Amino acid sequence: MNIYTYLKKDHQKVAALFDEIINANSQTKRESFFRDLKKELLLHAESEHATFYKALKSYPETKEIVQHADKEHAEVKEYLDRISDCSRENAEWLVLVGELKHSVEHHVEEEESEMFKKARSVLDEETEKRLVNDMEGYKEKLLATKKLE
Ligand SMILES: [Fe+2]
Ligand SMILES: [Fe+2]
Fold it and tell me: What's the 89 CA to ligand 1 centre distance in angstroms?
């Protein structure tokens, strides 16, 4: 597997969790799926930043798009905090989840099209494969050392 397939699989996991939240029939279930989503998003964003983005930062062709993507990651994290701080009875909760979904979808769209295309032009096949192991390893480290809540 190469890093593109791996990242796409992660993105699909996140999309499925958004569906679970939206289709859940109680706020308790929604919040439980939201906790899963938050963990998955933080795990994905932090490990992606430390491996795939880090590799791309060293090339002039991909440096700028990575800087832009990092800003979007920060926006996603801000939404996660706002939703966590929002009271469960508040009608705004689901509105914020909708805004987060929109923000994530936009980011993923850009990543899978423009960024992957540029990445393929600078990374060799060996690196594209190695980055999967790097990202897996980084996730394990995060899970062992950091609270992703
Ligand atoms: Fe991603
Ligand atoms: Fe990303």
Answer: 31
Q: Which residues contact 73 (CB under 8 A, 6 or more apart)?
A: 45, 49, 107
Number of domains in the chain: 1
pLDDT per residue as tens digits for the range 83-127: 999 987 788 999 999 999 999 999 999 999 999 999 999 999 999
* Cβ < 5 A residues, ion ligand 1: 48
Residue-range definition of the domain harbouring residue 124: 3-145
User: Are 56 and 62 contacting, i.e. CB atoms less than 8 angstroms apart?
Assistant: yes
Distance 131 CA to ligand 2 centre (A): 14
Q: What is the CATH number of the domain that holds 107?
A: 1.20.120.520
Nearest to 30 by CA among 89, 99, 73: 89
Q: How confident is the model at residue 63 (pLDDT cuts 50, 70, 90)?
A: very high
Q: Which ligand has the shortest distance to the CA of 77?
A: 2
| CA 110 – ligand 1 centroid, Å | 10
Cα 118 to ligand 2 centroid, rounded to whole Å: 14
> So what's the pLDDT on residue 54?
98
Q: Which two tokens stand for residue 70?
A: 């990092």
